[in-house]
TrEMBL record:
<keyword id="KW-0574">Periplasm</keyword>
<dbReference type="InterPro" id="IPR008168">
    <property type="entry name" value="Cyt_C_IC"/>
</dbReference>
<dbReference type="InterPro" id="IPR024167">
    <property type="entry name" value="Cytochrome_c4-like"/>
</dbReference>
<dbReference type="InterPro" id="IPR036909">
    <property type="entry name" value="Cyt_c-like_dom_sf"/>
</dbReference>
<keyword id="KW-0732">Signal</keyword>
<keyword id="KW-0479">Metal-binding</keyword>
<feature type="domain" description="Cytochrome c">
    <location>
        <begin position="33"/>
        <end position="204"/>
    </location>
</feature>
<dbReference type="GO" id="GO:0005506">
    <property type="term" value="F:iron ion binding"/>
</dbReference>
<dbReference type="GO" id="GO:0020037">
    <property type="term" value="F:heme binding"/>
</dbReference>
<feature type="binding site" description="axial binding residue">
    <location>
        <position position="181"/>
    </location>
    <ligand>
        <name>heme c 2</name>
    </ligand>
</feature>
<keyword id="KW-0249">Electron transport</keyword>
<dbReference type="GO" id="GO:0009055">
    <property type="term" value="F:electron transfer activity"/>
</dbReference>
<feature type="binding site" description="covalent">
    <location>
        <position position="46"/>
    </location>
    <ligand>
        <name>heme c 1</name>
    </ligand>
</feature>
<dbReference type="GO" id="GO:0042597">
    <property type="term" value="C:periplasmic space"/>
</dbReference>
<protein>
    <submittedName>
        <fullName>Cytochrome c, class I</fullName>
    </submittedName>
</protein>
<feature type="binding site" description="axial binding residue">
    <location>
        <position position="141"/>
    </location>
    <ligand>
        <name>heme c 2</name>
    </ligand>
</feature>
<feature type="binding site" description="covalent">
    <location>
        <position position="137"/>
    </location>
    <ligand>
        <name>heme c 2</name>
    </ligand>
</feature>
Length: 204
């Protein structure tokens, strides 16, 4: 009888301990929910151009969904500082604090990328794949152009946007890349750029 009473008491202490743990974790759970809601609210204005969840549906706006957080943060910082400039995007970064930039970067990095409706030309895809092997693009961007840290994911990005960025790097209109992209793109012809963009926009 005695051992049974002890066992009941042990179970009681154990149950109380679990209840206490649950009660203690409630505020942090609701804090996490508040933070997620605040991030989504901050990102709402961005989605008017970059699409719902950062999945762009227009060629002039890049998708942000599934991009690396580090790269997104660095681009926002560069737009604000004027190292990268675009008449539609620069004003959007003007009033962001570093904290806002981290929150927005983490938010869009965590969104799931959705395939665009781009119809690739198979001949250009093959030519682009060869060119990308020749120039060793994936040495930095990783196989499948999935990106890492400060090097962007380009797989499945909007085709017209990829073309514009490669032209801008080649023509030194975009120079916030510490020389990485301006040097690899300097000898690309317009046809090379079309081929590369067909190949990369077609990757998932
Ligand atoms: C009025 C339209 C518009 C709005 C609103 C907008 N952007 Fe942009 N954004 C652009 C355009 C256009 C570009 C591409 C500029 C270029 O061609 O270089 C861009 C580029 C970017 C890039 C660089 C992406 C890459 O792959 O290099 C990031 C990051 C970004 N925007 C984040 C944001 C965030 C965060 C917000 C909300 C605070 C926002 N944008 C709101 C138009 C917009
Ligand atoms: C030495 C490393 C390196 C190599 C090689 C390289 N890239 Fe990049 N690429 C980068 C970095 C770093 C950035 C981001 C630059 C910045 O911060 O603005 C970038 C940016 C880009 C962008 C812009 C993405 C966006 O969202 O705006 C495209 C497109 C791109 N690279 C395509 C290519 C292609 C195609 C090749 C091969 C022809 C290539 N890269 C080779 C490092 C590299």
């Amino acid at each position: 009888m005695k051992t049974r009473a002890i066992r009941v008491r042990i179970w009681l202490v154990y149950a109380l301990w679990i209840i206490a743990c649950l009660l203690l974790s409630l505020p942090s759970l609701s804090r996490a929910a508040d933070a997620a809601a605040a991030a989504a609210a901050k990102a709402a204005i961005c989605t008017s151009c970059h699409g719902l969840g950062g999945n762009s549906t227009t060629g002039e706006y890049p998708s942000l969904a599934g991009q690396t957080s580090r790269y997104l943060y660095l681009q926002l910082r560069d737009f604000k500082a004027g190292r990268r400039s675009d008449p539609r995007m620069s004003p959007m970064a003007e009033n962001l604090t570093p904290d806002d930039m981290h929150v927005l970067a983490d938010y869009f990095a965590a969104q799931k990328p959705i395939a665009t409706d781009f119809k690739a030309d198979p001949i250009k895809v093959e030519a682009g794949r060869k060119k990308s092997e020749e120039i060793l693009c994936t040495m930095c961007h990783l196989g499948g152009f999935s990106g890492q840290n400060e090097i962007p994911r380009v797989a499945g990005q909007q085709y017209p946007y990829i073309v514009k960025q490669l032209q801008d790097f080649r023509d030194k209109k975009r120079t916030n890349d510490a020389g990485n992209m301006t040097s690899v793109s300097k000898n690309l012809t317009d046809a090379d750029i079309e081929n590369l963009a067909n190949y990369i926009a077609n990757l998932q």
